[in-house]
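Notes, p. 3: input format for complexes.
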Amino acid sequence: MTKKKFYVTTPIYYVNDVPETPKGLADRVVVRFKDLWESLNISNDDFIRTTEERHKKAVAELFKIVQEKGDIYKGMYEDWYCTPCESFFTELQLVNGKCPDCGRPVEKLKEESYFFKMSKYQDALLKFYEENPDFIQPVTRRNEIISFVKGGLKDLSISRTSFKWGIPVPGDERHVIYVWFDALTNYLTAAGFPDNKERFNKYWPADLMLYMSGLMH
Ligand SMILES: [Zn+2]
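Output follows (217 residues plus zinc ion):
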């Protein structure tokens, strides 16, 4: 008898910590997450890292699909920048107007960036949440997200030129695809996107997907 499929994801684990080479740090942190599941006596069918080749391929493929649909354009990204940390921060992330990581002063900087036309999807998302009241749970989070979307969705900056750690934009390798398009796509990769269509059609969409609330920032 074939079992009915049920695809449940964990949240995405972040490996932010003290600066070291990014890959070296990730290699050490990832072991701790794997150990955690073992000590909880919970098994999993797959464990994906965003540094894997299958994931790089999925992100590049998704980028191309969205670009071909006309939902990606090149523009200028402007935000608060900390030079020693080589990082951009939003106004909300600043602590007393200073860098949240090192406490030094920040300055307004601009860089070229690719943008996803997220604003275009505001009404469609609100309609979807209304028609599918159980899609986001619990209700408190649902309300939080609805009021966030109603507050106005801005187009999302999805690339950076200020660092190299990450997956290059197809056809424009000065740009690295930023976290939104890279990390979140791992749910698709694990389900088999783009090459394993049989696996993908079986498991996608996920039955239960877990998020870290920090992603809303
Ligand atoms: Zn800093």
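The pocket of zinc ion is lined by residues 82, 84-85, 99, 101-102, 104 (CB under 6 Å).
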